[in-house]
Write a structure and sequence with these properties.
The complex is a heterodimer of chains A (270) and B (259).
Chain A (H helix, E strand, L loop, with lengths): L8 E12 L2 E12 L3 E5 L6 H8 L7 E6 L2 E2 L5 H8 L2 E4 L11 H12 L4 H14 L15 H13 L5 E5 L7 H18 L2 E6 L2 H7 L2 E6 L2 E5 L1 H6 L3 H15 L2 H7 L1 H4 L3
Parallel strand pairs in A: 3-8, 3-9, 6-7, 7-8
Antiparallel strand pairs in A: 1-2, 1-4, 4-5, 9-10
Helix pairs in contact in A: 3-4, 3-5, 4-5
Chain B lengths: L4 H31 L5 H39 L7 H39 L2 H7 L4 H39 L4 H11 L2 H28 L5 H30 L2
Helix pairs in contact in B: 1-5, 2-3, 2-5, 3-5, 3-6, 3-7, 3-8, 5-7, 7-8
The complex binds adenosine-5'-triphosphate (ATP) and magnesium ion.
Magnesium ion (MG) binds next to helix 1 of chain A.
Chain lengths: 270, 259
C-alpha cells in the first residue's frame, strides 16, 4: 500500500515527528486525506490518532515535518493566520469539548452566530435541523452536563458540521453509541460527504463501519502510517495490519455461544 | 530533580522571570481584546454580574463586621483621650484609604478570583478552549478577556460597597451601642474625608487590585496543566499569588503616593 500518484490531498502530513512528554508519539508520520473522500484513521488506543487531529487543527505543532491544510503549511503559521485556516475545518473532539456554560442549542449555534451573517431565525432553523440530524431534537435547552456521553458527542458533531466546513475531522464518532445511533451517525457522515463533497477524516476503532464508509484507510502503527483503500488493507500482508484485523474479527464475529463456552460462569446467567 | 542549593535558586528565579514575562505578554493580549473588535460586551456584562453576585454577600457582611469592630476599637481607644467625637474620622480614614480596597481585594480573590481560575483551568482540561480555537474563536477574546476585565471593573464597586457597609457598622456600634451622638459621628466623618485626597486614591487602589486579581486569576487558569491537579494548582496558586501581590502593591502605592 502506498500513496496513489496524482491524488490531490486536502490535508497532508509529511515526515511528522512529535514527542509528547517523554514519549516519541509520531516518528515520521506521512499520510494524506484526499479531497471529497472519506478517510478513516485506524489504530490501537494510544497510537496517536487524536494527536493527528490536533496537528491538523494546528492545536499541537510538530517537532519537525510539515502539516498541509488546503495547500498551506500550517506547522509554523502564526496563530492569527491559523484562525482563518480553521474556518475551513470542523472538528469533533474525542471528549466533545462543548462549552459547559451554554445550552446545547447555543453551543451548536455558536459558530453560526460568530461567523455567518444569517439572521437569528435562520440560525435557529439551521441549528434545529442539525439537532434533528444527530437525533437530539429534544435536548436543545439542556446543558452539556445533563447529557449522556453519547448524546454529548452527537451534539458536538452537530456543532462541528453546522457551518458546512469543507474539511471535517471527527475523532471517534461511534464510541459510546448504540448500534442504531452508530448507523444514524454513519449515514449522516456519508450523506454530508456525498452531498456537499466534504473531505472527511474519521478516527475509529469500529472496523465494520470503517470498512463500510471509507474510501481510504490510514492505519497508524509505531508512529507511522500505512495508507490505502479498504480492499488493499484487507489484503495486506503487513503483519501489524493482519494482527489488528484478526483481533477485531475475534471481537465482532465470534458468536455468543463460543463466549459462553469460554466463560461458563459469567454466561450462566443468560 | 535534586539540584545543589545555588542552582536551585537560579532555576527558581528563572522560572519566576519566565512567569513574569508570560504574564506581561498575556496581559497585553487581554488588553488588546478590549480595544480591538469583536467586542464581547454581552459576555463582559455577564461576567461582571457573575463576579459581582458571587462576592456581593460576603463583601457586605464582612464590611459590616469590620466597620463594627473599628467602631468598637476606635471608641475604646479615643475615649481615653476624651477624643471619642473623632470615631467617625478614624473609622472613615482607615476604611477608605486602606482597609476597604485591601480587604475587598482579598475577599474577591477568595471568591470570584479563584472561581475564574478554576473555571478557565477546567475549560483547558476538557479541551473547551481548543474547541473554541477550532471554531476560529480566540479564547482570549471570548473567555479570558471578559473575565479579567470584569474582575477589574467590579473591584472598585465592591470596595465602595464594603466601605459603605463598614461605615454603617461603625455607626451602629458607636452610636446605637456606645451612645455617641449620631450627628457627631457623621460630622467627624465628613470633615476627615475629602474627595480628592481620600476617595479618588481609594478608587484607584481598588482599580489596581482589580487588575492584579483579574490578570493573575485568568493567567493561572489559562496556563494550567490539563489535569485535575492542574486545576487545583491554578486555583490555590491564584489565591496565594494574588493575595501576596495585592499586599505588596498596597505597600508600594502607599509608600510612593502616600495614599
Ligand atoms: N498531554 C500529553 N502528555 C504526554 N503524553 C501524551 C499527552 N497526550 C497524549 N499523550 C501520549 O500520546 C500518545 C497518543 O495519544 P492520542 O490521544 O493521540 O492517542 P489515540 O490514538 O487518540 O488513542 P485513543 O484511541 O485511546 O483515543 C499516547 O500514547 C499518550 O501517552
Ligand atoms: Mg484518541
Amino acid at each position: 500500500m502506498s500513496t496513489e500518484p496524482g491524488q490531490e490531498f486536502r490535508v497532508a502530513l509529511d515526515g511528522v515527528y512529535l514527542k509528547r512528554g517523554d514519549r516519541q508519539v509520531l516518528r515520521g508520520l506521512t499520510c494524506g486525506f484526499p479531497r471529497g473522500q472519506i478517510s478513516v484513521v485506524l489504530g490501537g488506543s494510544g497510537c496517536g490518532k487524536s494527536t493527528l487531529m490536533r496537528l491538523v487543527g494546528g492545536l499541537t505543532r510538530p517537532d519537525s515535518g510539515v502539516v498541509r491544510v488546503a495547500g498551506e503549511d500550517i506547522s509554523r503559521m502564526s496563530n492569527r493566520r491559523l484562525f482563518s485556516v480553521r474556518e475551513r475545518i470542523g472538528m469533533l473532539f474525542q471528549g466533545g469539548a462543548l462549552l459547559d456554560s451554554m445550552t446545547v442549542f447555543d453551543n451548536v449555534a455558536l459558530p453560526l452566530r460568530e461567523h455567518s451573517k444569517l439572521a437569528e431565525p435562520d440560525i435557529r432553523a439551521e441549528v434545529s435541523r442539525r439537532l434533528v440530524a444527530v437525533g437530539l431534537e429534544q435536548v436543545g435547552e439542556l446543558y452539556p452536563r445533563e447529557l449522556s456521553g453519547g448524546m454529548n458527542r452527537r451534539a458536538a458533531l452537530a456543532r462541528a458540521i453546522v457551518t458546512d466546513p469543507e474539511i471535517v475531522m471527527v475523532d471517534e464518532p461511534f464510541s459510546g453509541l448504540d448500534p442504531i445511533n452508530v448507523r444514524r451517525i454513519e449515514a449522516l457522515l456519508v450523506e454530508l460527504n456525498r452531498r456537499l463533497g466534504i473531505t472527511l477524516v474519521v478516527t475509529s476503532h469500529h472496523l465494520a463501519s470503517s470498512l463500510r464508509m471509507a474510501d481510504r484507510i490510514v492505519f497508524m502503527v509505531d508512529g507511522r502510517a500505512i495508507s490505502g483503500t479498504p480492499e488493499a488493507l484487507l489484503q495486506s500482508d503487513d503483519e501489524r495490519v493482519v494482527a489488528f484485523l484478526e483481533a477485531e474479527k475475534d471481537q465482532s464475529t465470534e458468536d455468543y455461544a463460543a463466549r459462553t463456552d469460554a466463560f461458563p460462569v459469567a454466561g450462566g446467567a443468560a | 530533580m535534586r539540584l545543589p542549593a545555588v542552582e536551585r535558586i537560579g532555576f527558581k528565579s528563572q522560572l519566576f522571570v519566565d512567569h513574569l514575562g508570560g504574564l506581561a505578554v498575556f496581559t497585553l493580549s487581554v488588553l488588546r481584546c478590549a480595544f480591538v473588535p469583536p467586542f464581547r460586551f454581552r459576555r463582559f456584562v455577564d461576567e461582571v454580574f457573575d463576579a459581582g453576585v458571587l462576592s456581593l454577600s460576603i463583601v457586605c457582611l464582612s464590611g459590616f463586621a469590620v466597620g463594627a469592630v473599628l467602631g468598637l476599637q476606635g471608641y475604646d481607644t479615643l475615649v481615653r483621650f476624651g477624643a471619642e467625637a473623632n470615631v467617625g474620622a478614624m473609622v472613615g480614614l482607615s476604611l477608605v484609604r486602606e482597609l476597604g480596597p485591601v480587604l475587598t481585594a482579598l475577599l474577591v480573590i477568595g471568591r470570584a478570583g479563584s472561581a475564574a481560575a478554576a473555571q478557565i483551568a477546567t475549560m483547558v482540561t476538557t479541551e473547551q478552549l481548543d474547541g473554541l480555537r477550532m471554531m476560529s474563536i480566540d479564547p482570549i477574546d471570548f473567555v479570558v478577556g471578559p473575565k479579567a476585565l470584569a474582575l477589574l471593573v467590579v473591584m472598585p464597586l465592591l470596595a465602595a460597597l464594603f466601605i459603605l457597609f463598614a461605615l454603617f457598622g461603625g455607626y451602629l456600634v458607636s452610636v446605637m451601642l456606645l451612645g455617641l451622638h449620631g450627628g457627631t459621628y457623621f460630622a467627624s466623618l465628613e470633615s476627615a474625608i475629602t474627595f480628592a485626597d481620600d476617595i479618588v486614591p481609594s478608587f484607584s487602589k481598588a482599580l489596581v487590585f482589580g487588575a492584579l486579581v483579574g490578570f493573575i486569576a485568568t493567567y493561572r487558569g489559562y496556563t494550567s496543566e490539563p489535569t485535575s491537579t492542574g486545576v487545583s494548582a491554578a486555583t490555590t496558586g491564584t489565591v496565594v499569588t494574588a493575595s501576596v501581590c495585592v499586599l505588596l502593591f498596597d505597600y508600594v502605592i502607599t509608600a510612593l503616593w502616600g495614599i
